[in-house]
Structure formats: structure tokens, C-alpha cells
Amino acid sequence: MLRVFFCRGRFLNSDIFSNIFTKDKTGGNMVKSTITCDMEGVIETYNEGAQSIFGYAADEVIGKKRVSLFSPGLVVLQNVEGWLKTAREQQEYTGKTVFVRKDGSTFPAHIRITPTFKEGQQVGYCGVTEPINEQVDVPIRWSTKLISWLVVTRAPFLTAALMPLFIGGAFASLGMAAGTFPVFHFALAVVGVALLHLASNVYNDYFDWKSGTDQANTSYFLKYSGGSRAIELGLIDLAGTFRVATTLLTVAVAIGLYLTWQVGTGVLLYGLIGAGLGFFYTAPPVRLVARHGIGELAIGLAFGPLITAGVGYVVTGQYDATWVTFLLGVPVGLLTANILVMNQVPDFVSDSLTGK
Questions:
Q1: Taking the complete model, does pTM exceed 0.90, yes or no?
Q2: What b/e readout covers 257-269, taking b as 16+ CB neighbours within 10 angstroms?
Q3: Are residues 193 and 309 in the same domain?
Q4: In sequence order, what E strands does the chain have?
Q5: CB-based burial of residue 182 (10 Å sphere; 0-12 exposed, 13-18 middle, 19+ buried)?
Q6: Domains: count for the chain
Q7: Would you state the pLDDT for residue 171?
Q8: Are 262 and 220 in contact (CB under 8 A)?
């Protein structure tokens, strides 16, 4: 029986766990192998036993991948934090779960997690994993699935699009007679802009992964780091991101075409410009993000003046009423551009390696 040790954090001497052979209950050899990693889960050592179980070569994962690679994404999202909390508070967590091999196949296993210490300070966790010959069902809560979609689409960042939209709508409504504000059209604009934003987010992850930017980013998960890392966490695959993004974009286009029919061709104009800036921010051959500041200015335009002017046109149906709302969106757009720059700072090294 092959047993693998997963370790988060550094051991004082991790080599003592490598290539150890002991006797199992049947008298056969039981191989113990060790995977060590830092506090963020980045793999530091990876011996032959781990290679046999998971199928990855050491040079594929050391310093490049995290231990979350070996678990289904929803399991990581739902259970791992609880496992670690139990290990910290009770000095041990034991349970059964499912792991994933390089070829995508899964296998059931027993896992034991304990905290590791160095000089009296906790430096990580050590998990002992033993494949077992029984069916293991890991139930996933609906709330976890919902959270996973929030991660994939980066929906919490919708405020960047909704704030200028409501500002522009409110300003355009000034001076309008009571009861004349087009509530339905405005509501459709809110949904359409939100869907365009979400589509841009997911396309961004898709093209970042295709360009190798996300794979090159082995830095810690930081609060202000860009991207969702949903593909890395196994919450969705590359093809899935493209399907989700395209679906979101298709629905947004349908809404835009309806508003164009109801309000005027200006809706189509603003929508095409906004969708183009969001898509080509990371999509080749334009890839605005790699053009020395043009990408940041483009996002500032898309998430500021373009939205305020666009919603002004939806509300009034007139171009002459949109110039003031266009200028109104400049401060908001600059704020969003600054947030984007802040998010890029932690990713500077990996972005530089891939020309982003």
C-alpha cells in the first residue's frame, strides 16, 4: 500500500520522511513519501512515492504548483479550511476524501493532518494520505457551488461597473418629469452591463491561462492580486471558462440588441466599444494589457465615461445629453484604473515573464 505525506510549511529536516519503507499489516512494503510546501501550499519537495500516486514528475510541481492541485476544486473551497482549523485547535484532523491524479482520475483516501512547528512557531501542516479500497462520497453544499461561481466570475467586483451605471442613470434622470424615467430599459441596462463585466472577467482568466501568465504566477495568494485563479484551483477548466464567458457575452448582446431596437443605435455603439475593450484587454492580437499603460486607460474608459454616457443615452435616447454624463464618469474611471494598477503590483514578476 502506498502512502503519501502532504506537508504545508517547512520541516526542520524533511528528508527523514523520504523513501522510507516499513511493513504494513500484511507484511508487505508500505512506501511513505513526502510532499513539503510553504504556508501558501507551494510545493517545495516531492519524492518518488508522490510521483507514483499522482503522476506528476517532481520538476512539474516543485516551486510551480500548490498542494490544492491534488484535490477537486470544490473540496478545496468547502473543506480544507475546516480541516486546517480542526488540526490547529485539536492538533489533528482525520477523515476520508477524494484526490485527483494528473490524468484526471480520482481515488478515495484517508487523510490525517497535523500542524508542524519550528522553534515553537507553527509553520504549516502535515497531512498523511493513504489510498483506500472503498467508496468515498464527499457531499458538496449548494452554498459552496454558489461561492465557486462567484469566484469564477469575480462577481464581487461588479461594483466597478454598477457604480458608474447608477451615477449616470441618476444624473440623466435630473429634470425628467415624474413617471417618465424608463425603469425597464434602465433595469435591462444594469443587467447587460453586469453581464458584459462578468464576461470580461472570465475571458481575462481564459486568455491569461492560454498565454501562460497564470501558470507563471507561483506567488502567494494575495488579497489584491489580479485574476480569480479558478482554473488553478480546479473550480473550472480552460474550455469551461470560454463557454461561460461566451454565454454571458451572448446574453448581454441579446439585451443590447433589444435596447438598440427600443432606444436607438447609440446603445449598439456604446455596447460594442465596451465589449471590445473588455475582450481585447487580454485577448490577442490586440492584448491591450501588454501595451504599456494603454490597457489601464482602456479599462478606465470602459468602467467610467463609457458606462455613464451609455446609460445616459439609454435613459434619454439622445446623444446631446450624454456629453456631460461622459465627463461625469472620468473620476470613476480613473478610480477603477487605479484599482487595476494596485492589483497588478503583486503579479509584477509573473506578468513581466509573459509580456503582460
A1: no
A2: eebbeebbebbbe
A3: yes
A4: 2-8, 20-23, 29-37, 43-46, 93-100, 106-118, 121-131
A5: buried
A6: 2
A7: 93
A8: no
Residue 163, domain member (yes or no): yes
What is the per-residue pLDDT for 202? Answer: 97
How many Å apart are CA 312 and CA 354, to the nearest integer? Answer: 39
Query: d(Cα 107, Cα 133) in Å, to the nearest integer?
Result: 9
Same domain for 20 and 153?
Answer: no
Domain C-terminal end among 107, 131, 155: 131
Q: Which domain covers residue 227, as residue numbers?
A: 143-353
Supply the pLDDT for residue 52: 87
Instruction: Let me know whether 251 and 341 are in one domain.
Output: yes
C-alpha cell read off for 333: 474611471
CA distance 104 to 276: 35
**pLDDT, tens digit (0-9, with 9 covering 90-100), for 252-285:** 999 999 999 999 999 999 999 999 999 999 999 9
Task: State CA 215 to chain mean position distance.
Answer: 13
| Chosen domain end from 131, 158, 179 | 131
- Which residues does residue 164 pair with via DSSP β-bridges, in sequence order? none
